[in-house]
Amino acid sequence: MFIQVLGIDLGKSCFHIVARDAAGKTQFKKKLSRTKLCEFLANHPQCTVAFEACGGSHWLARKCMAFDHQPKLIPPQFVKAYLKGNKNDFNDAEAIAETATRPNMHFVPVKSENAQVIAAIHRFRSGYIKERTACMSRIGAVLLEFGMSLPQGHATMKRLFQWLAKQSEPLHPMLPPVSDYLSLLIFIRGIKNECKIHRSI
Description:
This protein is of the alpha/beta class. 51% of the residues lie in helices and 15% in strands. The protein has helices at residues 34-43, 57-66, 76-79, 89-100, 113-145, 154-158, 160-165, 179-200, and strands spanning 5-9, 14-20, 26-33, 48-52, 70-74. The longest helix is centred in the middle third of the chain and has 33 residues, at 113-145.
């Protein structure tokens, strides 16, 4: 029995597999855990392994390549056109296998582990920058409640303590510490340095 393509519907802990031969006929279906999936791929003869490009897909693609399979990552919107019947995990896997055999189909390139690390660091940094902006807004709003109009801009926040020292009225001792902003700024700078390190690898 020659299997041409394995369509896999990815999950966090369970994976649904549909195996098709060269004629497009389904030969078997399996539901496997993450550990069992790796064992299955390691022992399965070389073939095309298709799944949607989503969370965890690039990791699985690299695993497939290590086992001499040909991974194909499919944008999820292209799979919908080949879904038959009610939406469930095995039907999704069937649609993925069908999509992988279509001519002129667009596939997503597999990312290296290093490329994924850099992308993850950028996502973290982007999130912390949003938190920094929100923190600036909170501090400005609180100070305004006590008659202090903090000038807008990141440059002013860098000199926050010096600016506060020049104000005629001191902060109330029960107010939250504005040092939270500076701690966040230091953390963001650390993430930026991590990006530079990984680019050089």
